[in-house]
Design a protein that fits this description.
96 residues; mainly alpha; Methane Monooxygenase Hydroxylase, Chain G, domain 1; 86% helix; PTS_IIA_lac/cel_sf
Length: 96
């Protein structure tokens, strides 16, 4: 499923962003977080499409893969949000 692929890529990229920040590359970290958000946006668009179809009366088959996809989506979203905070914290620490 494309949601799993996009969310997995977003999670990996968010972790790369944190690693870049820890290595002192704030610009690289900021770019990686932006890339992660873009990757997750692809998963979000698919998720929104599925929900819209179901709201319009088309039954979407629930499966373990769909549940896993939703789990990966939420995990990626959380890692991006935490990554942004970690990057900001490191940048503030480096300014002192």
């Amino acid at each position: 499923m494309q949601i799993i692929l996009s969310a997995g890529n977003a999670k990996s990229t968010a972790l790369e962003a944190i690693d870049a920040a820890l290595a002192g590359d704030n610009d690289g970290a900021t770019k990686k977080i932006a890339d992660a958000k873009e990757q997750l946006n692809g998963a979000h668009n698919i998720q929104t499409s599925l929900m819209t179809q179901e709201m319009n009366g088309k039954m979407i088959q629930k499966s373990i893969l769909l549940i896993h996809a939703q789990d990966q989506f939420m995990a990626a979203n959380t890692e991006i949000e935490l990554g942004e905070r970690i990057i900001k914290t490191i940048a503030l620490k480096d300014q002192k």
